[in-house]
Amino acid sequence: MADSSGNVLFNYRTLVHAVAGAAGSVFAMASFFPLDTVRSRLQLDENCEAKNTLSVMRDLITEEGVGTLYRGVVPVLKTLCTSNFVYFYTFHGLRALRGRAEDQSALRDLLLASVAGVVNVLVTTPLWVVNTRLKMKGLQNSSDKRDLEYSGLIDGVLAVGREEGLRGLWSGTLPSLMLVSNPAIQFMTYETLKRRLHRAYGPEEFAGVVYFLVGAVAKAVATALTYPLQLVQTRLRHGRDNENARVRPTMLQLLTTIMRRHGVQGLFKGMEAKIIQTILTAALMFATYEKIANFVFRLLLNNSAAKA
Q1: pLDDT tens per residue, range 5-42
Q2: Among the CATH numbers 3.30.420.40, 3.90.1530.10, 3.55.40.20, 1.50.40.10, which is that of 8-302?
Q3: Domain boundaries, given as residue ranges, for the chain
Q4: pTM (2 decimals)?
Q5: Could you give the CA distance from residue 299 to residue 140 in angstroms, rounded to a whole number?
């Protein structure tokens, strides 16, 4: 398939990056999903305020069983697969459209990753809204109209749309759009570090542990810089009522409520679990993505050489 500017967004290389990114993210999230459950519980459950990751995990197993650590795992993996396919496809398609690999820069990567993030948010926010509610089922009052039983992801989207309209489906979109800075910073840092390593050690493929470590550093930087917005995003998606705030508060109102009740440290509640979970998940995702993509490209190159 030709790589001309007219069809660069639809060429096989962009598709390989998208499929590899989606597969890598699903494998990584499935590996560390219990940590994501703990992170969500710490961000949303007031009773977990003074607990750390291990104590919350132990309490959940004791009180609700091991299965609660994997509550909502199937719809999360489906949504994550869709989300990362959209993100990787958009990011690498735009990179190919903008020019050769040697022309890439950190600033360009940041810009393209931000555009990919906006596209991803607008397409997949309804899926993440339902995921958050499926995972945190039972935290809201049973009398709350949002305490709904969803038979699956699509049923949940239809139910939220029917009960709460478009506003409910795109709850938390504003902080999500602001949070495109998180994957943008992550991808910029990752690609910048990878370019420097290639300049220092050559263009050859690195060992998986190198991609793992680079991905871990990139995600740690992005998470530390954007965590308060991630906390607000989770609460808005869940749709919980907040004391002294409207049923559906704005992002600023929710930030103010959290700071009034818990101080500045309240904006970083659950960050320990988030840091552990996101660093491990992102690191494994990048390592898996790179290995899958490089394997497919080598396979395609060998097939092309054999036919020549």
Answers
A1: 445 566 888 999 999 999 999 999 999 888 888 877 77
A2: 1.50.40.10
A3: 8-302
A4: 0.76
A5: 50
